[in-house]
Write a structure and sequence with these properties.
Layout lengths: L10 E2 L2 E10 L2 E8 L4 E7 L8 H15 L9 E7 L2 E7 L4 E2 H5 L6 H20 L12 E3 L5 E3 L4 H4 L12 E4 L2 E4 L5 H4 L6 H17 L9 H10 L5 H4 L5 H10 L11 H13 L7 H7 L2 H27 L12 E4 L3 E2 L7 H16 L5 E2 L2 H4 L9 H8 L3 E10 L2 E10 L4 E11 L3 H15 L6 H8 L6 H14 L4 H17 L4 H14 L9 H18 L4 H13 L3 H14 L4 H13 L3 H14 L4 H13 L3 H14 L4 H13 L3 H15 L3 H13 L3 H14 L7 H10 L3 H13 L21 H9 L5
Parallel strand pairs: 12-14, 12-15, 13-15
Antiparallel strand pairs: 1-2, 2-3, 3-4, 4-6, 5-6, 7-8, 8-9, 10-11, 15-16, 16-17
Helix pairs in contact: 3-6, 3-10, 6-9, 9-10, 13-16, 13-18, 18-19, 18-20, 19-20, 20-21, 20-22, 21-22, 22-23, 23-24, 24-25, 25-26, 26-27, 26-28, 27-28, 28-29, 29-30, 30-31, 30-32, 31-32, 32-33, 33-34
Length: about 800
């Protein structure tokens, strides 16, 4: 029978259930309100059958009472135990934060952090052991880290009180062997042998937790469970420094001593471990913990140590001299210029909430981007790390970021809790952490608070305008906000179906709140995505009026909305209003100096009006802000192609393919560059690859047809031309695409006929008509000069 769980709003005893916050082998945990003492508590609903009968229930109550008397800063306090509606529940201190296991998804901790957190865990264990309470099931998920960096150990003694799942052959489950219970990967040899547990059993589990924090993997990872048990009983773990060479010998010695197979060879108390960890924290260069020196230092090793110490002293003196001459680049307090907000983690693990969590990530990026002194990495780049578990230092290097913002989101109805941390990349130092809880109506104010807190911590000076902007917390309509987030979620999928769903949700948001400016900006982006600047689904002339109207309405409602100005700039660019487009691009960048997309399209404008050097600078700026987005690398290829720097096109394309090997546009521009170098077989090969990877993109068909034509494969070119002309009877085909094949075949009259239609349609290709290598053969034809003149380009 399924375990009974309370519903939100239900009252158990005098505790009102507010939200579900976790689950595990020991039960389901809810945040609740103690209506007598007016405080939040954690209510753990025990699994059905965990307490066999009333006699066992009385024993549980007695044991719970003894656990409640353990009062320590690093132990989550037990308040109460009761039964109601067939549910046995334990009431504990409510502690906000993430557990060690959740944080380990991002990679190993720095040694400094392992020592700081480890000392707290050891002190909590020592306090409980002094009261005669053994944990028996210590593991990363039972060590919670609060936003201010304090550790709270959860579930003390529950493994003894609750009958866990019986052994079932997996390596992750809670198991019972004889009279001993625990979680298999973290069990000590004596537990597996059914010999009972004592304080040294907790020390073994603590050693496994330290090992995992230091290396991001368990000391024993074998599968299936039979092999895992054999490894725990008989095999020595891989030394931690073999997995993480940055660890000191001292910390490694502490960990391995905790993991000794025989109890008598381990630390005999948690207090001893705490002493050694604190000593290592005071002097991270200490090679071996104090409690182990006498055994490990033989006469010979003391001699070697003396020699090494002498060498170290000389090196230290040289280092001091060097430091006086030159500042140390790796100082932990160095100025932070570039920051990246990694995708927030959804603690509910509900796929239906992904749009919401991604939306909060976007909003935090937007808020931080309003701080002109900061460079904020683009959404497209950071979203590539969603669900990717890499060390934060590696992520920072790949993004070229000085600091990372990481965090979690938990939603229950209209209540939102965000926990955020700011981590300095160079030293893996946690600079700031906090937890915020608000109603959905106040979520924008919540994110403004986070952005301001980060700005204060890294000592960024806000302009008066930025202070006003971040200090103004708009109260939003929750239904409109949710519809808006769904619209952005689908628009970001960059498919026809996604864009059309995006339009539906943006319109739904505006039906709920007609004055919600971001929804109008979202509509403008969707309309643009359907034209030649995006998916080429509709003629540009058909979508431009709706796109411009939506962008103007967004600005009318909120003139400081950067997205609205960027969308209006694109609309103006496509009707060849050059001054209007430039003004709007500059306004968008002024409001959001970290908007890679705005720089991207501004580069297109600059190139079209002949400011080639400025266009390259804008393109490189977009690349800096969105470094692992292959689209930005391809934009540099685009620039190099139109300036006839064909080898640079190929080199940049290869860089893009290192990030995304199947990125069709990189192959496309490499193909164009090969054609420009007269390497026709290579050009055809790359363009065919691009066409295949894109799913048959029509623009790529035009390029391939042109390559066929100029390389002598006229029949293949004519076949593609006929296919496109036939398709154009019932589907959208850009006239510019047909013109490309026509000029390759030498049919000038057809080429000009289609180019005229492209200008009438305001096709994107018109912007580059003056410089497009495709039309070099007719560059001196008066008809081409006339078409370029119609663009009314500035001098």
């Amino acid at each position: 029978m399924a375990d009974a769980v309370p519903s939100v709003g239900q009252v158990l005893g005098h505790y009102r259930i507010l939200e579900r916050i976790g689950a595990g082998g020991m039960g389901v945990v809810f945040r609740a309100r103690d209506e007598r003492l007016e405080r939040d508590v954690a209510v753990k609903i025990l699994p059905q059958g965990a307490i066999a009968d009333e006699s066992a229930r009385k024993r549980f109550r007695k044991e719970a009472l003894s656990i409640s008397r353990v009062n320590h800063a690093n132990i989550a306090t037990v308040h109460d135990f009761d039964t109601q509606d067939g549910m046995d529940f334990l009431v504990m201190e409510f502690v906000p934060g993430c557990d060690v296991g959740q944080e380990l998804h991002r990679g190993a901790f720095s040694e400094r952090r392992v020592l700081a957190l480890g000392a707290q865990i050891a002190e909590g264990l020592a306090a409980a052991h002094d009261r005669g309470v053994i944990h028996r099931d210590l593991k990363p998920s039972n060590a919670l880290i609060t936003p201010d960096g304090r550790v709270k150990i959860l579930d003390f003694g529950l493994a003894k009180l609750i009958q866990p799942t019986t052994f079932n052959g997996t390596t992750e489950t809670a198991v019972s062997i004889g009279d001993t219970a625990g979680t298999l990967p973290y069990m000590a040899p004596e537990q597996l042998l059914g010999e009972g547990a004592d304080v040294r059993t907790d020390i073994h589990a603590f050693g496994e937790v330290l090992y995992e924090m230091a290396t991001a993997r368990r000391p024993f990872t074998e599968a299936p469970s039979s092999r895992l048990i054999d490894a725990i009983l008989h095999r020595a773990p891989v030394p931690p420094r073999a997995l993480n060479p940055r660890l000191s010998p001292g910390l490694e010695a502490v960990i391995l001593k905790c993991l000794e197979k025989a109890r008598e060879n381990r630390y005999q108390s948690a207090a001893e471990v705490a002493v050694d960890l604190r000593r290592l924290a005071r002097d991270e260069s200490t090679a071996i913990p104090a409690a182990s020196r006498r055994r490990l230092f033989s006469a010979a090793s003391r001699l070697r140590f003396a020699i090494a110490a002498g060498i170290t002293a000389v090196l230290a003196l040289l280092l001091v001299i060097a430091v006086r001459r030159q500042p140390f680049a790796g100082r932990s307090d160095r100025t932070i210029h570039t920051i990246a907000v990694l995708p927030l983690e959804d603690l509910s693990r509900d796929p239906e909430q992904q749009y919401f969590v991604d939306g909060l990530t976007d909003q935090l990026i937007t808020d931080l981007s309003q701080i002109s002194a900061l460079q904020v990495i683009s959404r497209t780049s950071v979203m590539q790390y969603k669900g990717v578990h890499k060390p934060l230092s590696q992520v920072a290097r790949e993004l070229n970021a000085d600091a990372l913002v990481v965090g979690t989101v938990l939603r229950a109805g209209d209540q939102i809790r965000i926990t955020a941390q700011l981590v300095q990349a160079a030293s893996d130092t946690n600079l700031w952490a906090d937890s915020y809880e608000r109603n959905l109506r106040d979520v924008l104010g919540l994110q403004n608070e986070v952005a301001q807190a980060i700005a204060q911590r890294i000592k960024v000076t806000l302009t008066p305008q930025q202070q006003v902007r971040l200090g103004t917390a708009l109260v939003i309509n929750p239904a409109a906000y949710e519809a808006y987030l769904k619209g952005r979620f689908y628009w970001n999928q960059w498919t026809q179906d996604g864009v059309r769903k995006g339009i539906q949700y943006f319109q739904q948001a505006l039906q709920t709140d007609p004055n919600y400016a971001p929804a109008y900006a979202g509509l403008a982006d969707c309309y643009n995505s359907l034209g030649d600047f995006g998916l080429s689904v509709l003629p540009t002339r058909e979508i431009l009026p709706e796109m411009e109207a939506a962008a103007r309405k967004a600005i009318e409602l909120d003139d400081r909305l950067a997205d609205g100005h960027a969308s209006l700039a694109l609309a103006r660019l496509q009707v060849w209003d050059w001054s209007g487009a430039e003004n709007e691009f500059q306004r968008a960048i002024e409001l959001n100096a970290s908007d890679a997309i705005a720089y991207h399209w501004y580069a297109h404008y600059l190139f079209a009006v002949g400011r080639v050097g400025a266009a390259l600078s804008a393109a490189k700026r977009a690349y800096e802000l969105d470094p692992v987005n292959p689209e930005m690398g391809v934009h540099l290829q685009w620039h190099y192609y139109f300036t006839r720097q064909y080898q640079d096109v190929i080199d940049q394309g290869r860089k893009a393919l290192e990030i995304s090997p199947d990125f069709s546009e990189a192959h496309f521009y490499i193909g164009l560059a090969h054609e420009g170098q007269k390497h026709f077989p290579e050009a055809v090969q790359e363009l065919k690859k691009a066409l295949e990877l894109s799913g048959g993109r029509l623009g790529f068909r035009g390029a391939l047809g042109h390559a066929y034509a100029v390389s002598g494969r006229r029949s293949d070119a004519i076949r593609l031309l006929n296919e496109l002309e036939t398709r154009s009877a019932n589907h959208r085909v850009s006239p510019f695409t047909v013109a490309q094949i026509s000029i390759g075949l030498g049919d000038k009259n057809k080429t000009f006929a289609y180019l005229e239609r492209a200008l009438e349609d305001h096709s994107y290709g018109a912007l580059t008509l003056r410089d497009d290598p495709y039309f070099d053969s007719i560059r001196n034809d008066a008809r081409l000069e006339l078409l370029v003149h119609q663009l009314n380009l500035p001098r």
